Amino acid sequence: MRVSFTCLLLVSVTACAPLSDYETGALAARAVADARSQPERLHLAYLDCYPLPRGAKRRCIAAIAGNTASRVAARSRAYTTAFGYEAERLGFRAFLRDLDKPCAAINDGPLYNVKKNAYHVECVDGHRYDMRYDESGWTLVR
Questions:
Q1: Which residues span the domain enclosing 58?
Q2: CB-based burial of residue 98 (10 Å sphere; 0-12 exposed, 13-18 middle, 19+ buried)?
Q3: How many CB atoms lie within 10 A of CB 86?
Q4: N or C: which end of the chain has fewer CB within 10 A?
């Protein structure tokens, strides 16, 4: 099969065009589905990147993302942002589940509470937890 130069030029130009709102939404939805299909160990790895300073967090996520086939193919900001956000939320839930704490799901990313020196996690089923991260890893604040 022979492809003309015009066709190749058209494909390369459209590949560089900004994404429409629909395309951005579709990529984000695909990213969430991809994150949910990943093993729990990947979610927990994202959780360990969560509290790091911006540069270190970027390097931590890049190291994890390199091992995920669907992430390698999707390099758009809409995809990678949605994937990371969902993986982090699933990581918080997996951590709580490992401690036998009920948490159906987490809709919003945990906020840092300066007074408690911990991240405040609110589950959709009403359960609330405070979690702290230090060199030994994540712990639940009592």
A1: 21-141
A2: exposed
A3: 20
A4: N
